[in-house]
Amino acid sequence: MPPAGPGAPADIVAAMEENPQPPDLKADDHPSRRYQERLLRDPGDHEAWQGLRRSYDRMAEDWREWTEDQHGYDLAVCEGLRRVRPAEWAVEICCGTGEATAAIAGAVPAVVACDLSLEMLRRRVDVPGVRWVAADVRSLPLGTGRVPLVVSLNGVFHPTEIVRVIRPGGQLLWCTSFRSGTPLYVPPERMHRLLGEGWTAEGGHAGHGEWTLFTAPGA
Ligand SMILES: C[S@@+](CC[C@H](N)C(=O)[O-])C[C@H]1O[C@@H](n2cnc3c(N)ncnc32)[C@H](O)[C@@H]1O
Fold it and tell me: By its UniProt entry, which CDD domains does this protein fall under (predicted)?
């Protein structure tokens, strides 16, 4: 890992000192990576959606305990949030048990946190003021072109629905905890292409993670 560098925020420096190596999740060969790849090629691949759903339901019981052991797990979200435009509210997708939700709620006045897995949501952390919703990234219960900011940490990337719900000039902050070592990782350039014409992107690293801030056309 490269040094944090002068001027790096104290939380990033501390996390890098505490946790010099990211976990080896065998991401290239991970079932989640294979499912994500199948869904990018064919968003109608029902079996892949089901596979993902089942695997995260199974992991829910131990999820929180594992993520809490990963120092700096949400650093990329914290760093990316420093770059977003002011937004009145945000939607977090694939929130799990709320690993990034407190950071988002600390930066945006109102947050709707969504995940498909009731097993994950049942074990969520308590974050005041957050509305928790069971929702599939394929059909978010949100109006078209309404959302100023969508955020996800280690989420399932399904561009069609993201593009539908984000308002003109709205933003998508996509983060991973372990860059390409994250099972659901999709390279930012590929996400950028899949979002379509007119989107802009900037990004960076924080701790072991990566953030990419996409801005929709029509600002
Ligand atoms: C890798 S976990 C990330 C959880 C949390 N954000 C974190 O970083 O620890 C992926 C999450 O996506 C959720 N998920 C899987 N398929 C989904 C779908 N079709 N719609 C919404 N969420 C889904 C899982 O339940 C799981 O909580």
Answer: AdoMet_MTases (cd02440)
Residue 93 DSSP SS3: coil
Whose Cα sits closest to atom 4 in ligand 1? 96
Ramachandran angles phi, psi of 165, nearest 5° = -85, -25
Task: Specify the pairing of strand 166-176 against strand 147-153.
Answer: parallel
Q: Can you list the domains of the chain with their CATH numbers? A: 75-215 (3.40.50.150)
What are the Cα distances from residue 72, in Å, to 16, 21, 138, 145? Answer: 8, 11, 29, 33
Residue 213's nearest CA partner among 183, 191, 185 is 191
53-71 pLDDT per residue, tens: 999 999 999 999 999 999 8
Residue with the smallest CA separation from ligand 1 atom 24 is: 56
Q: Which atom of ligand 1 lies at the shortest distance from residue 184's CA?
A: 1
Secondary structure letter of residue 86 according to DSSP: P
pLDDT number for residue 106: 97
Residue 171 neighbours by CB under 8 Å, 6+ apart: 84, 85, 87, 148, 149, 150, 213, 214, 215, 216
Ligand 1 atom showing the smallest separation from residue 100 Cα: 6
Taking CA atoms only, the protein residue closest to ligand 1 atom 20 is: 136
